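MODEL INPUT / OUTPUT PAIR
PAIR INDEX: 1
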Amino acid sequence: MKANTHRESWIAWILYSLASLALFAVFWFYLVFHRLLGLSVYQLVRPFVVLAILLLCFAAAAKLSREKFINRGRIAPMMIAVYALFLSACLWLVYYAREFGYLNSSAALVCYIGLPIIFGLLGLLSVPFMPWMAHAFMPREFSGRDDQEKPSRKAF
């Protein structure tokens, strides 16, 4: 049996991340934060840089974990990378909401304590579903199944 050696380009991952960051910046930072909430562009520079670093770190983790998923069938590293991104993005949002005065200190403290607990519980609750997710979310071209198994899927 031939082993899967799926590799993806680092440049493509970084460029896709930068493109998604640009779309996010235009919609959220410019339209929502700047236009609707009235925050100055100067105030939004530091949060944008922090978000860019988070996104580029996630792009590196997602690339490596996706290759592990496709090549070895291990979905746990990918789930950990996604949960870590969501947790760090939520904590980033709480920090800057507190800094800009949209959240008081007690609400921020509840979020700082509650968010890691919530994401930890979500991670633990998803462990029993990992084998099913590994089977269901594997891209068809890498799953090792023949297209002749299910003729109705050929149209998709």
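PAIR INDEX: 2
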Amino acid sequence: MVVLAVPAAAAILYFYGTAHAGAFLYGVGAGIVSFASTALTVSLMPVSSTVHGVVMWAGSFVARYGFAAAALGIPAFLGLWPAVAMLGGFAGVYLAENAVLLPGVMKAMSGTEGGGRRVDERVERRAGV
């Protein structure tokens, strides 16, 4: 994400100035931290068969969205950063990560990575008479 964000921030710096480029990079940083915490939340899911695991998973979920709301909402409310550039950087991380991860997920869900048929696939056989 950093490799994609730096040229985008340079273009924003050229066209809009330092404040917008800084806000964009701040949004990217908040997006990267939030997306990494998504991995933490997902890693806690297999433990969620117990009440303690469910509470940990739910707490991680609430903390992740609380972080995103505070990290973006407080600077926007106080007028510290241009909000559109900051939100663009944050949303750009999620868009880029999903675009990178989607082909792998689709391949894994299709069940054809082993080269054979899926387990639930039926084969019709006809006998010649």
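PAIR 2 NOTE: The chain has one domain: 2-110.
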